[in-house]
Amino acid sequence: MTVGAAIEYGLLVLVVSLCWLGVLGMWRMKEPMQALHYLSLPATGGGVLLTAAVLISQGFGQAFWKTLLIALIFLASNSVVTHATARAFRARQLGHWEPLDGDPIEMVEEGKET
User: For the residues 43-62, what does the mean pLDDT come to?
Assistant: First the structure.
């Protein structure tokens, strides 16, 4: 096994680990809004590491450029999709998405830890 192949396999193990961490994090959260935070692990970290693994494996070929494009799309769209999903959760729970007086919100007082 060459050094490049060992690095490639190590990167792929990290990609799979990030995906599993995201799944476990989403599974452990009580609320859907909390679980949304764990979507970024595979979408951003996994995409970047997978692109690096493809670069080591294939070089600057067609596969690398396609993987890079997909990773950039994931990086750009992850926050938009997460925000839209959170808005849909809120609209489903409250019947509207915009904040109104009397809506239940979480407040954190200064100086106190939760």
Answer: 92
